[in-house]
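step: validate -> pass
step: tokenize input -> pass
step: predict -> running
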Amino acid sequence: MKLLILLIVIIYFIFNTLLSILNYRNRNAEIPEEVKDVYDEVSYKKWHQYNMENFRFSIVTSFIDLVILLLLLIFNIFAEVHHLAQDWTQSVPLQSIIIIGFYIIVDYVVTIFTSYYGQFVIEEKYGFNKMTIKTFIFDKIKSLILIIIIGGGIIYGLSNLYINNPDMFYLYAIIAAVLFIFIFNILYTKVFVRIFNKLTPLEEGELKNKIIEYSQSVGYEISKISMMDASKRSSKLNAFFTGFGKFKHIVLYDTLVEKMTPDQIVSVLAHEIGHAKKRHTLQSFFFNIITIAINILVLSLCIKSNELGVAFGFNGANFGFGAIIFILLLQPISLLFDIILNPISRKFEYQADAFAVKYWPKEHLIDALKILGRENFSNLTPHPLYVAIKYSHPPLDYRIKAILKYKE
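step: predict -> pass
step: emit ->
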């Protein structure tokens, strides 16, 4: 059992690395005609350098994570932590929090150094970083507090649920997970986004008027439109929708408002509204329930396995360690889900684009996509296999080709 877990972790790393190498080597492929004007010669050379540094950095960080994980597993470090936890408390839920907390803290400490380098060396070098050291430190502190409160609460709740209702754990855990996601979605902009960013109501003017006019014309009710101070961390562009029903909320990055015209921004939002009108959000929610059910099944098998616990130095099945093994297996399991669900997600993107250009001039969406591609340093020549496995959105040239074929 121990060898099997180690092999799964190593094989996943090798597969992911080879896939990344394949995609990286495709960077010099000929640029499709539809996106040749995204970068000028200087910008494209800059993108190549940015891509090269990020690729090398991701390989190094992934290898460091792998080595640390293998050392923890091979030398049964989690079992040693469990013995210490037993000396501190007889509460199984608290012991589980200590074991899982140890793993999270180790990963968190490593991430501090890697994210610092990524943000203040690579992102800074290419003009994306707008974050100060102070903001970086406060973000890490806030993240740690959220991990302790939310993560600790989830572990404590699930372990108690398992101890008190072992036969019904699978069903109750699915219900709890679905409720958590639903509540988190409602509270995302109201609580969690505001912990890290400032949201201000979009000012009255041309942009707000056009957004409201468009949403009303397609029968989509919006309760709130806000602008987020994303520029204090990065120059990259984005916008997103959150909430359900009366809680629908549009959030625009201030960088997006700065770099795009009102018509282009409306086209981006028209795409997002297209997802809602085509019921993609609802369909994705049902897909999420299926993936949750499968993931919790794997979690149940891990926390109940005596063989798994004994293989790594425990006396038998252990909830905390079983949850850690589940976390490790989550990546290869998610890869399998990606292979199945990403084609559906890409189909949704085409449908949302079609909706957007049905009610708004297609040239605005094409221009907006090109700006997003340029400002976010999008890869114009991803490898087809990498796209098939990893991309939830079609490549930029694929989307533009499809948009040009749509009838307004």
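step: describe -> The chain has a mean pLDDT of 93.
step: cleanup -> pass
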